[in-house]
Amino acid sequence: MLSCVLLSAALAQPSSSAPPGVTSAGNVTLAQASESAWQRAVQAREADGQILRAQAERLAASSLWAAPPALELSHRNDRWQTNQGRRESEVGLAWPLWLPGQRAARNAAVDAALDLGQAAVQAGRLHFAGLVREASWRMAAQTAEVGLADTQAKYLKGVADDVERRVKAGDLAHADALAAKAELLSATAAQSAARERLQALRSQWVVLTGLQAIPDATETLSASGPDLSSHPNVRLAELTVDRARKRLDVVNVSRREPPEVIFRLRQDTPGRAEVAQNSMGIGVSIPFGTDGRNQPLQATALSELDIAQTAVQRLRDRLTAEAVVARAAVLSAQEQLDAERTRAGLLRERASLIDRSFKAGETPLPELLRSLNAASQAEAALARQQTAAGLTRAQLQQTLGILP
């Protein structure tokens, strides 16, 4: 029969930071898993599309013309009126011109949009790093639970076999054999349920990352305070403000539609047998800018800027508060882990003493089973608290905006 000491040694996890059962899981790092999850995400395609749109807008803003040139064609004759052979044909080409300062403002807005797209990529990576961190620690906790269930079932199998031999020898009653078998069946059912939950988490992991290997979720905890200026989400919000401000500048310098320079070639034929006359002309089209056009555009741009400025301030306040709460959670989780480790050690020692007493025939089987159950629950609580402590550290890294 396995001893309770061996059981406890198998269940105990001496490290306070490594996720039980995961450190030897695979050959992939947390950073690689996070990047794999990001590349599979729809948000990655959206961020790439945003960058491509900004690059296309940059190409348009670098053009010599405010809009594509337009070709004008016209022809008139008197065929259906007097039919004297009069004809008039005209070809024109219109070039829209940049307003003063408009081109520079458009280029600045495009640069801001491109920076915003790149910041959106980093913010997206941070978001999926958080999902990967939580998923890896959930699997760490469930892997530990499976290990506990396996060891518990193995130990109770030894207890049941030993009790069966002692019942046959007449040292124990048949009721003790029934109790031992019942405990073994309960442990086997718990083992099966734990394995099923682990398999479900593994399936979710594959959907998230596309990987079979499980990384070591342990990270070195940052000792520095939160640097909000380098946080990807803050950077994204600040660039959103910058883009809104640049868009407002574009609206302010675009008080009217772009003027057009128009070159025309014209051919007139006064009548039959008369010589055609050619001429060339140049014209300018200057649209007026009215309040009906400008005020809605300016109001929209001002509203976008105000919303972006408010959002970045609220984000700073929220991240600062979350960092304080996350650091407190790390300290609290570590204190609970120390308490659970001490409690598990005490119950482990008690179960070991009762195990030796049972072997000597001095303690009844129910007492052994109760002590074993208490020790197992304490070891399970210790394993759960280890993963909870690791998760709080990962959540602090996430709050600080630190990528794996």
Describe this structure in words.
This protein is an alpha+beta fold. It has a single domain, classed as Outer membrane efflux proteins (OEP). 66% of the residues lie in helices and 9% in strands. Strands 1-2-3-4 form a four-stranded antiparallel beta sheet, with no helix packed on it. Strand 3 (260-269) and strand 4 (277-285) form a beta hairpin. Helix 2 (30-39) packs across helix 4. The longest helix is centred in the C-terminal third of the chain and has 69 residues, at 291-359. The two termini are 45 Å apart. Residues 1-25 have low confidence and may be disordered.
What is the mean predicted local confidence, pLDDT?
A: 85
Distance between the termini: 45 Å
Helix content: 55-70%
Kindly state the number of beta strands: 4
Beta-strand proportion = 5-15%
How many domains make up the coordinates?
1
Rg, rounded, reads: 38 Å
- Summarize the helix and strand pattern as letters: HHHEEHHHEEHH
CATH homologous superfamily name?
Answer: Outer membrane efflux proteins (OEP)
Could you give a short account of the major beta sheet? 4 strands, antiparallel
Spatial strand sequence of the major β-sheet:
1-2-3-4
Which fold name fills CATH's third level, the topology? Outer membrane efflux proteins (OEP)
CATH architecture: Up-down Bundle
Organism: Polaromonas eurypsychrophila
Protein name: Transporter
GO molecular function: efflux transmembrane transporter activity
Keywords: Signal
Summarize the structure.
By secondary structure, this protein is of the alpha+beta class.
